[in-house]
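To whoever is on call:

I kicked off a structure prediction for a single chain this morning and the downstream step that reads the tokens threw a length-mismatch warning. I double-checked the sequence; it's 69 residues and nothing unusual in it as far as I can see. Pasting both halves so you can look.
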Amino acid sequence: MNDRLAFIKHLFETNTLEYQRVISQIVTFSNWEEAQSFVVQIVKPDYNNWEGKERYEARFLKIIENNFT
């Protein structure tokens, strides 16, 4: 399954616009630490802390991290 579609379905409750908004904000950060902090402290709590979706969360964060290295 395409990562983007899986993230939208499982992490963002099928809300494509919310996913796009989050990605748009992530690309504005200058380093991985800022992006990670944003996702963990701001995004995750809006979605029940992605409870039970750890596999998707780990993949999402790894892809983001790879973009900063």
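Update from on-call: the warning came from a stale cache, not from the record. Cleared it. Sanity check on the structure: The helical segments are 3-10, 16-26, 32-43, 54-68.
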